[in-house]
Amino acid sequence: MSEPSKKLELQFQNCNLGISARRLWEHTELGQANVFGKAINGRSDLNDATDFIDVVRFDTFTVSLAGFTVAQLRDGQIPAHRIPKDVPVLLAGLATRKAVAFVAEVAAHIEQCSLRQATRNKEILATAKAGFDFQSKVSKANEGLWQDTWNAAKNPFEAWWQYKKDARKRKPIVSAWIAARDYYDSLPKPKKAD
Predict the structure, then answer these.
(1) In this structure, what DSSP letter does residue 68 have?
(2) Which residues pair with 10 in a beta bridge?
(3) Interhelix angle 22-30/97-152, nearest 10 degrees
């Protein structure tokens, strides 16, 4: 489904309704905004292809959205003003071999997107962890130097004066460590199996 030449809509026989994965394809392949109520999850077992397949109307020259997805139709969550009169034909169309194959193709596409996202998240997490570890080592090394300076002072007043004097040097190091820690903490971590 990643190629635009593949069919993104499927019209059912005996009615002007069908299903479409065009908005999903535009989101995943062209970078359009996600218009669905949920995002593609990095864990593929949490993705349901029917959440990303629209029910559409086929007119003579155009295809327009019916206003709900296959999952909403399946769950009976169609707004009352959008219920098409030929719902039984639509449900029968969803049970055909072509529709099942269409949904399976969309599920395979979502699986690919899920794997891409999971791989990208792992790389981002690894980079953030490495940055945080580096900043921790820099901070720890400088902390040791500052402690040595403090211990080498002849009296507490001289130590305090040196500590205040070095504050300008410490601030960027501590700030970088805090920024690295906050960025790493903000990223979603994979759940550990119990």
Answers:
(1) E
(2) 19
(3) 30
* Token pair belonging to 176: 């970088």
- pLDDT one-digit tens code per residue, 16-50: 888 898 888 888 888 777 777 777 776 667 778 88
Strand-pairing partners, residue 68, are none
DSSP states along 133-184: HHHHHHHHHHHHHHHHHHHH-SSHHHHHHHHHHTHHHHHHHHHHHHHHHHHH
Question: What CA–CA distance (Å, rounded) separates 64 from 25?
Answer: 16
> Half-sphere exposure (CA, 13 Å, Cβ side) for 116?
10
SS (H, E, C) 87-98: HHHHHHHHCCHH
Q: In what order do the strands lie in the sheet with 17-20?
A: 9-11, 17-20, 54-58, 63-69
Long-range contacts from 144-153, C-beta under 8 angstroms, 24+ separation: 146/170
